[in-house]
Write a structure and sequence with these properties.
Blueprint lengths: L3 H14 L1 E3 L7 E3 L8 E6 L10 H14 L4 E4 L16 H7 L11 E3 L3 H4 L3 H5 L1 H6 L3 E3 L3 E5 L2 E5 L8 H4 L14 H18 L4 E5 L14 H6 L1 H6 L4 E4 L5 E5 L6 E5 L20 E5 L3 E7 L3 E8 L4 E8 L5 E2 L1
Parallel strand pairs: 2-7, 3-4, 4-5, 5-6, 8-9, 9-10, 10-12
Antiparallel strand pairs: 1-2, 3-14, 7-8, 11-12, 11-13, 14-15, 15-16, 16-17
């Protein structure tokens, strides 16, 4: 029987094992060694933090069950970590009520690598980046942009909220925490250069970019024009395999029309069932899967193969996609 204290002790040991590499002029990098068989497995979840409501606790339970099944290495969070307006400080009880007290399964006591979403920017964005939260729960790692190097897989986390111009011009009554971003254009330009340089240096078999906002989506928010224009060309030029995001509260798999990139949305960690689909999608044939409900996604990689699986709130498989480097990104 696992107690809260024993799980936290386990997590502290895991945190000690995670290596951090910091180099001047580069995105901060965290090292996650592959398993002895050479594989890497993780779960991706987004748009979740609601103190267990809107089926968040049920999704968390199923994540724990699947995490044990796939021998989970870590968790990826695609942002909008705490609703409705992020955290108000480092000591906001919402952190433990929506994170520590919810994701209690033994398999989920691994590092959680998180980016900020637009709702997180509506609160104290700096609070989620603070080391104080890691003292409360050592699983938590949240930075604006960074890299997780898992040997055969390299994951590039990108802070996408500052790209979206309407948050500056049409805030719709919301206040965004731009304290660390005095100039949108300078910040975005610098981040684009950092991402491009990091992708060029990468020798990983699989390259994944993670951001909060979708590049391609038939959900409520649709495509994010700024990302399509400013990030997608960099990804295409540097051999990115997958883009993972949240923002739309659904599960999606969309193939790019003129590159091997797959767009994977996992933003269904709690409130979902919005009931609307963007009718302006350019090519319905590129949509491989869409589910307007709660759930999450798992990913497993070897040197030759990748398997992506989407699950619903009951842990049932909704969609599976498998590809092989040997088959030049063919899917079945």
């Amino acid at each position: 029987m696992y107690t809260r204290r024993s799980l936290m002790s386990l997590c502290l040991l895991i945190c000690i094992c995670a290596t951090v590499v910091v180099t001047n002029g580069e995105l901060q990098k965290f090292i996650e060694p592959a398993k002895s068989d050479g594989s890497v497995s993780f779960i991706t979840i987004g748009d979740w933090g609601r103190r267990g409501s809107f089926n968040q606790s049920i999704v968390a339970y199923q994540m724990g069950r699947i995490g044990e099944k796939i021998d989970l290495d870590f968790v990826v969070s695609t942002g909008d970590n705490f609703y409705d307006n992020g955290l108000f400080s480092e000591h906001d009880p919402n952190f433990e009520q929506s994170f520590s007290d919810i994701y209690t399964a033994p398999s989920l006591q691994k590092q959680w690598y998180s980016v900020l979403g637009n709702h997180d920017y509506r609160g104290d964005a700096e609070a989620q980046l603070s080391s104080v939260l890691r003292e409360i729960d050592s699983r938590w790692i949240c930075l604006r942009s960074f890299i997780v190097d898992a040997e055969l897989v390299e994951i590039f986390f990108v802070d996408t909220t500052p790209f979206v111009k309407e948050y500056y011009t049409e805030a719709d009554g919301h206040t965004y925490d731009w304290r660390a971003i005095p100039s949108r254009n300078s910040y975005v330009k610098s981040l684009r250069l950092d991402l491009e340089a990091s992708l060029k240096r990468s020798k990983a078999t699989w390259k994944i970019v993670v951001g909060h906002h979708a590049m391609r989506s038939i959900g409520h928010h649709g495509d994010t024009k700024e990302l399509v224009e400013e990030l997608l060309p960099i990804m295409k030029e540097n051999g990115v395999d997958l883009y993972m995001n949240g923002h739309d509260h659904c599960l999606q798999h969309i193939s790019d029309e003129d590159s091997p990139i797959q767009f994977l949305t996992s933003g269904a960690g709690s409130k979902a069932w919005r009931g609307d689909v963007d009718p302006m999608t350019n090519n319905p044939k590129s949509v491989k899967f869409y589910y307007d409900g709660q759930g999450f996604m798992s990913a497993r990689f070897t040197h030759s193969d990748a398997e992506i699986v989407f699950y619903d709130v009951f842990g049932e498989v909704l969609h599976k996609w498998v590809t092989s480097k040997r088959l030049l990104h063919s899917s079945v």
